[in-house]
Amino acid sequence: MSTGGTRLAKAREKKQSVSDVMTTMPIVLPADAPISAAARAMRDRDIGGVIVQTNDQICGMVTDRDVVVRAIATGKDPSKTPLVDICSQELTTVTESTPVDEAVQLMRDKAIRRLPVIDDGHPVGILSIGDLAIERDRKSALADVSGAPANR
Fold first, then answer.
1. Could you please report the per-residue DSSP string of the chain?
2. From CA 21, how far away is CA 82, in angstroms rounded?
3. In this structure, is residue 7 part of a structural domain?
4. 1 lies in a domain?
5. What is the tally of structural domains in the chain?
6. What is the pLDDT of residue 134?
């Protein structure tokens, strides 16, 4: 068995938790921040989503697709429209201790690409299908794309 295969087998035996795979230090913006602030943060950090908060509570998430489909395509002004107007507000979240297999099943069941990771009500990370591809199937096309440098 290859080194990668051995590592994967050991990880599965250990029952990985979300904290083993997630992207840490998520970008969190206030609900009244303009869409353009989220777009710049996504560009600068090479990420596809930001968490939206109001009064120190998560109230939603905005993805690059939301910016295009819910804002630009509908004629909203990205410099004036607040994130709360386009963010997904019915979020599914996990904790750092959630087993990865459980998080994967949630993503499948709800057809979502990113899960905010919460600790004591505060965002501590995001688990994406790209994170999972890189960790679990390094030879997949998705892992290659997810691990590649950003197009600038």
1. --HHHHHHHHHHHHT-BGGGTSEES--EEETTSBHHHHHHHHHHHT-SEEEEEETTEEEEEEEHHHIIIIIGGGT--TTTSBGGGTSB-S---EETTSBHHHHHHHHHHHT-SEEEEEETTEEEEEEEHHHHHHHH-TTSHHHHHHHSPPP-
2. 31
3. no
4. no
5. 1
6. 73
Whether this prediction's pTM lies above 0.85 is answered by no
Q: Is 113 within the bounds of a domain?
A: yes
Is the pLDDT score of 17 beyond 50?
Answer: yes
CA distance 23 to 9: 22
CATH number, residue 57: 3.10.580.10
* Domain coverage including residue 96: 15-147
* Number of residues in the chain: 152
